[in-house]
Automatic annotation (TrEMBL), chain A:
The keyword Protein biosynthesis applies. Residues 1-26 have a biased composition (Basic and acidic residues). InterPro entries: IF-2B-related, IF_2B-like_C, NagB/RpiA_transferase-like. It comes from the Eukaryota. The keyword Cytoplasm applies. It is found in: Cytoplasm, Cytosol. The lineage of its organism: Eukaryota, Metazoa, Ecdysozoa, Arthropoda, Hexapoda. Pfam families: IF-2B. This is Translation initiation factor eIF2B subunit delta.
UniProtKB/TrEMBL annotation, chain B:
Component of the translation initiation factor 2B (eIF2B) complex which is a heterodecamer of two sets of five different subunits: alpha, beta, gamma, delta and epsilon. Subunits alpha, beta and delta comprise a regulatory subcomplex and subunits epsilon and gamma comprise a catalytic subcomplex. Within the complex, the hexameric regulatory complex resides at the center, with the two heterodimeric catalytic subcomplexes bound on opposite sides. Its main location: cytoplasm. It comes from Aquatica leii. Pfam families: IF-2B. The keyword Protein biosynthesis applies. GO terms for cellular component: cytosol; eukaryotic translation initiation factor 2B complex. One of its GO terms (molecular function) is translation initiation factor activity. Acts as a component of the translation initiation factor 2B (eIF2B) complex, which catalyzes the exchange of GDP for GTP on eukaryotic initiation factor 2 (eIF2) gamma subunit. Its guanine nucleotide exchange factor activity is repressed when bound to eIF2 complex phosphorylated on the alpha subunit, thereby limiting the amount of methionyl-initiator methionine tRNA available to the ribosome and consequently global translation is repressed. This is Translation initiation factor eIF2B subunit alpha.
Amino acid sequence: MKVAAEKKDIKVETKHIQKSKNEGCELSKSQQTRVTSKKSNSELNTHFITNKEKLNTNIQAPSSILPFIERTKLEESKVKVVKEPEKACIEGLSKAEIKAQRRAIQDAQRNAKINQKSIVNDKQPEKSIKKVENKKAIPLKTEVFKTLDKHRVSLFNHLYFEEFEKLQSLKNFTICNNGVHPVFFKLGEEYRSKSILGSNARCLALLSAFKTLVIDFKTPPNQEFYRSLELTIGVCVSYLNKCRPLAVSMTNAVRTIKLLLTQSDINETDIEKKKNVLERIDRYIQDDIDTAGEAISLRVQEKVSNGDVILTYGYSSLIKRILVDAHKREKRFKVIVLDSRPLLEGKEMLRRLVCNDIPCSYLLINAASFVMSRVTKVLLGAHALLANGYVMSRTGTAQVALVANAYKKPVLVCCENYKFCERAQTDSFVYNEIGDCEALATINTSERSTELVNWKNYKKLAPLNLMYDVTPSDLVTAVVTEIAVLPCTSVPVILRIRPGE
Amino acid sequence: MQTSEVKSKFESILNEQEDVSTGIAAIMTLMEVLKHYNSITIQGLIEELKVAMEAMKDTNYSAAAITSGCELFRRFITLGTMDYHTFDECKEIMLKRGNLFLKKLKEAKGKVMKLGSQFIIDGSKILTHSRSRVVLHTLREAAKQNRYFEVFVTKSQPDDSGIRMCKDLTELNIPCTLILDSAIGYVMEEVDFVMVGAEAVVESGGIVNKIGSYTMAVCAKAMNKPFYVLAESFKFSRVFPLNQSDLPDEYKYSPEMRKRDLSKEHPLVDYTPPALITLLFTDLGILTPSAVSDELIKLYL
């Protein structure tokens, strides 16, 4: 019953969004031009840093978020997605307009809810969730080990998802609802199917989901707004964590938001509190993600000179932004995009660079040593920067850095400050993520079907698809952050001076 | 002050006072500019200082040292003085601060000398490059403590500054040998360690120094000899060269050279990456290259 009701709810939202989307397209164009003209005012890097505050207020539309939207739009055909607050901030409407839009959204949702007479947050979420977990934990474990153990690499046993248990618990979640906002079900599915990829995109999607949650949130009776919101966020995040382990960027964002919830003034009305929280989330997106990206882009552009051959690996939204910005500044350089199976993210990078008229070539990672001699600089994105100066990134990054180091080419890792992580790690075993093993078995490039397709029939075969690897700091020449260009060894200093922790 | 005035002031400081290094001279010149400034706006002052900085960079002295000196001046003397009411108050505070700052900087060399001389033990053979005031003073300090050691000095083309260094050392009764720049590899096997100065210490922990330092560092690494750098902390500068070609042109070439075709000109400095440096002796203590960037972050953030 309730599931059906939810579906209705979503439909209402979709219609509303479709409308606002059409309006948004026109607006965003004019907005973009406005932004570029403003940017030119603050060309100098130093100037930019000192006037960071000022700049933040100037730029209304975070241009970096646009590509994420493009990307999600592409994938919307696969999974129907609704994402309103993100849109609002992308279109870069004035505050009043955003407010009006939010109010409209709120009204629509409220009406829909009244019709269904089922309100999401009314049930006390924490208690029921504990019950569910207790129930499922005991009977399932034994079964799981029997069925799935055989196709595992024992070294990584601690990383395997309990596939069966996971599905079961997801089902529990969906049936009992438990205070998880519907937007998180969609988001979780997108994470799981990897239609949202990359730690920036994932973090932005999460933050926009938070915004929807805050807008729709109703304080349960006899509870304080911030406390109950914090609990609900906790529940939602743990649901997402079951869909796909959280990225470091997401964990950091969640931590910051929870921190601001605990520090906020509780003597305001709920509406003011909501406004407050939404503002803070928007500011986080602006300051820590968008403006940070811009600062990094400016710093790296100083290092890109005419005639450079820049090698990059996979698809990093930040690297793409840097390269496109540098090209706009009339720097003449070539890009070599390295890529690897099974995700083939580099294709996306290639598409976007070619769209921007940047001369590119595309190779798979096994040709790295062949092209490295022609390369002048290597630019890499990062999933996280660890406290010991090591860089955690998509698998293959360490290999690219190693080859670059062998050829004595400078390796620059670009990473926003909010992706810094207090964990220290020297190998990829302890903390990692195992991707879909099925993806290794299918080769979409060859016509013939491979032996591997039936890998589950072979008892002794255990394909391993690791998502991340760790690059030692001595293979990295410099890390570019919004604060400074640093050697990897200075990451702990940045962690120490980071405010609020 | 006019551009030409600034230039002549800067040059006269360097010519008259033997002991003053380029960075300090730059700061002293900026202090003069500040003293003679008679308009009443902060903005105007900042503009004037900027012009003075550019003027100094246009002389034949090391741009790396001038830049880092000026940056420090800006960071510690002119910034953060805006909360006083009148401009005269501001100016007074700035001058006071500036003098205090200069005093501190002049003490820096003493600290470096003290730390560096500990590493020179009886019977050691030291290789040094070009002429550096800190290295000279450190060697003098060690000789004063009655240590017996031998020094190899490279001739250091193109300005032959090694010859002067050799003369200075002979006057101090320190046994020294002048060698050709191309003989670095030959003498490396018999020296105990390499000790050089620096024009600038960059954010990576590497150094920018007279051309040939990189060659020496590579040789020392190959022969597993320690490579020590003596540098005061006012030489720390916020640049991060990735390789030799990434060094700014104003560091590598003199103003006259920059007017000509750069592909035919020979660079005056090179960049030694942190991996080749064993230790840096600074007034902040003895640092590993990776600690330099930590100190820089502390200084500027």
